Structure to design on (544 residues):
C-alpha cells in the first residue's frame, strides 16, 4: 500500500514543498515565496492553482485568460480602427463600464496577492526574509492594483470632464469633404460688457487626409454677412452693419443680450450666431465651435507643459492702462525673437498683445500659438499630464462638438499633425494693407474665392498667399527707395553716386542694436513711432 499522510494525502504530496512547505528547508521556502509572488504577478490565479485553493485558482485563471483575450482583441482593433477604441473610452456608458471593470480587476488582483501571502505562510520563513517578502508584496501590489486603480480614477476624471465640455448631440458629417470648426478666444475681463471673442479662427480639416487650413478673422471685421437660413438674417438682412459698434467681436454680446430667443435650442446663442456670421464671411458652413476663456488659457498651456514657437520679432507684455487715457504704462517685459519656449503667461501675452503693432499681427500670432498647441499636444503629453489638462479644459473650454465623434476627430488630428497648416488672414497682409480698410468694407466675393483656392491648392498654397505679398513688399521698397534717392541726390548725382551712397550712409550712421533695454527706453520716453517701425510685422512666426 502507498503511504498516506494527514488528510489522506500520499507521502509524496506531504513532502511536496510547493503545497506543503513546512517540511522544506528555509532556502526552499524563500524561493517558493518569490515564485508564488511572480506567478500572481504574471499569471494571476496560478499561485492558487498550484499551492492554494484550486477552485479559486481556476476562476481567477479564467478571468486572466479573458483579460488577455480582450487585450489581444483591442490590440488588433487598434491596428485596424483605433478611433473605435477612443469612441468607447469617451462614450458616456462605455467609459463607465471601463471604470467599473478596471476598479473590479484592481480589487480582485489585490485579493489574489493577499491570498498569495496566506499561501506563502510568512511564519515559516526565516526571520530576515519576512520583511523582504512583505515589501516585495506591497511593491507588486502598487505596480499592478495601483496602476489599474489609478487608470480607473483617471478615466473617471476624463469621463466627468468630457461630459461637462462636450455635447451629446448627434454626430455631423463633413461638408464638401471638410470639417469646419470655429475657435474663439473670449475675454470677459474688467471694464468689458460681456464676453467678447477677440481671437476668431476657423480650422478647416480635410476629412480624408487631415490637410488643415486656418483662417484668421480680425476682431474689428465689419459688415459680416449671415446665411439665408440664419435667424440673424431677419435682424441684419444687410449684414452686421450698424457702424463702428458692429465689429465682429461685438456680435456675441449683442446676441446674448438682445437676440438669444432666436436660438431657443442653443446652449450658447452667442456662439451659434458667431458660427452663422463666420459662415457668411468665408462662404463655408461652420459645423461646430470651441470657445476658450482667455483668462484660463494660461492654465491650459501650463497644463500641457508650455509651447515652443519661433517668434519673428519682439512682442511687448503690456502694462496696465494709464488712468483717463487709452495708453499703457511702459511694458512689463518683452518676448524676444527666435525660438522661444513659452509658459502659459508668456504664450497668452504673445497671442493677445497688440501694443505698438496691429490687430492683424496679433491674428497671425494667435494662429501660430494655436498651430503650436496642435503640433505639440501629442499622446505622451496627454497621458503624462492628463489630470492637469482635464482640470484646465473643464474650466476654460466650452464647445458643441459631439462627444461621440471624439474618436474620429482624434484620428483626424493625428493626421493633421504630420502636415503643414496653411494660414490665411481675412485682412492685412493677405488682403491689402491696413490703410485699405478692407475689414471695414470687405469684398466677400474675393474672400470666398480665396478660401476655395486654399482648399484646391493643397500641394502648393504659396501662390494664393503671394497675391498680397507684392503689395506689401513694394510699398516698403518704395519707401526705402525714395529715401535712397534723396540721399544720392545730395551726393554727386551720378549713377555711381546713387549706388555708393547707401554704403556710405550705413558706415556713417549704423543702426542701433535692438535689445530689450533699447525697446524699453523707447517705451519710457513715449517714442511710439519708432517702436511701431521696429516692431512692424511682429506677427511673423512659425512652429519650429
Amino acid at each position: 500500500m502507498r503511504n498516506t499522510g494527514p488528510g489522506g494525502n500520499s507521502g509524496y504530496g506531504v513532502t511536496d514543498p510547493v503545497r506543503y512547505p513546512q517540511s522544506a528547508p528555509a532556502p526552499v521556502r524563500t524561493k517558493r515565496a518569490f515564485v508564488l509572488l511572480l506567478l500572481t504577478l504574471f499569471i494571476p490565479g496560478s499561485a492558487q492553482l498550484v499551492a492554494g485553493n484550486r477552485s479559486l485558482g481556476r476562476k481567477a485563471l479564467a478571468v486572466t485568460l479573458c483579460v488577455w483575450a480582450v487585450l489581444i482583441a483591442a490590440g488588433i482593433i487598434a491596428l485596424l480602427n483605433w478611433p473605435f477604441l477612443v469612441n468607447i473610452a469617451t462614450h458616456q456608458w462605455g467609459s463607465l463600464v471601463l471604470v467599473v471593470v478596471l476598479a473590479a480587476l484592481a480589487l480582485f488582483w489585490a485579493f489574489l496577492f493577499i491570498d498569495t501571502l496566506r499561501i506563502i505562510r510568512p511564519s515559516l520563513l526565516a526571520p530576515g526574509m519576512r520583511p523582504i517578502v512583505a515589501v516585495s508584496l506591497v511593491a507588486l501590489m502598487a505596480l499592478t492594483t495601483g496602476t489599474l486603480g489609478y487608470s480607473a480614477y483617471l478615466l473617471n476624471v476624463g469621463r466627468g470632464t468630457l461630459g461637462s465640455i462636450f455635447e451629446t448631440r448627434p454626430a455631423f458629417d463633413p461638408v464638401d469633404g471638410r470639417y469646419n470648426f470655429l475657435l474663439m478666444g473670449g475675454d470677459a475681463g474688467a471694464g468689458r460688457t460681456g464676453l467678447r471673442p477677440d481671437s476668431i479662427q476657423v480650422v478647416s480639416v480635410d476629412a480624408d487626409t487631415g490637410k488643415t487650413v486656418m483662417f484668421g478673422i480680425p476682431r474689428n471685421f465689419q459688415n459680416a454677412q449671415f446665411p439665408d437660413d440664419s435667424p440673424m438674417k431677419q435682424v441684419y438682412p444687410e449684414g452686421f452693419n450698424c457702424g463702428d459698434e458692429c465689429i465682429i467681436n461685438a456680435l456675441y454680446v449683442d446676441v446674448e443680450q438682445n437676440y438669444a430667443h432666436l436660438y431657443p435650442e442653443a446652449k450658447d446663442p452667442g456662439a451659434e450666431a458667431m458660427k452663422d456670421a463666420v459662415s457668411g464671411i468665408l462662404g463655408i458652413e461652420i459645423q461646430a465651435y470651441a470657445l476658450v476663456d482667455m483668462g484660463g488659457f494660461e492654465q491650459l498651456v501650463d497644463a500641457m507643459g508650455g509651447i515652443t514657437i519661433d517668434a519673428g520679432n519682439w512682442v511687448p507684455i503690456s502694462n496696465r492702462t494709464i488712468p483717463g487715457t487709452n495708453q499703457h504704462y511702459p511694458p512689463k517685459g518683452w518676448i524676444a525673437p527666435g525660438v522661444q519656449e513659452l509658459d502659459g503667461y508668456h504664450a497668452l501675452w504673445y497671442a493677445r498683445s497688440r501694443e505698438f503693432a496691429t490687430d492683424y499681427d496679433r491674428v497671425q500670432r494667435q494662429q501660430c500659438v494655436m498651430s503650436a498647441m496642435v503640433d505639440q499636444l501629442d499622446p505622451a503629453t496627454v497621458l503624462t499630464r492628463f489630470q492637469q489638462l482635464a482640470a484646465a479644459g473643464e474650466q476654460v473650454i466650452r464647445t458643441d462638438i459631439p462627444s461621440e465623434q471624439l474618436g474620429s476627430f482624434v484620428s483626424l488630428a493625428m493626421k493633421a499633425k504630420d502636415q503643414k497648416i496653411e494660414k490665411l488672414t481675412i485682412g492685412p497682409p493677405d488682403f491689402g494693407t491696413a490703410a485699405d480698410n478692407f475689414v471695414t468694407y470687405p469684398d466677400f466675393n474675393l474672400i470666398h474665392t480665396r478660401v476655395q483656392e486654399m482648399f484646391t491648392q493643397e500641394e502648393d498654397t504659396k501662390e494664393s498667399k503671394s497675391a498680397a505679398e507684392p503689395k506689401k513688399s513694394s510699398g516698403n521698397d518704395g519707401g526705402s527707395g525714395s529715401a535712397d534717392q534723396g540721399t544720392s541726390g545730395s551726393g554727386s548725382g551720378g549713377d555711381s553716386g546713387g549706388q555708393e551712397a547707401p554704403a556710405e550712409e550705413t558706415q556713417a550712421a549704423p543702426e542701433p542694436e535692438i535689445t530689450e533695454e533699447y525697446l524699453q527706453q523707447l517705451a519710457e520716453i513715449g517714442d511710439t513711432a519708432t517702436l511701431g517701425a521696429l516692431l512692424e510685422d511682429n506677427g511673423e512666426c512659425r512652429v519650429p
Summary: Residues 178-468 form a domain with the Aminopeptidase fold (CATH 3.40.630.190). The mean pLDDT is 84. The longest strand covers residues 196-206. Residues 65 and 97 are 19 Å apart (CA to CA).
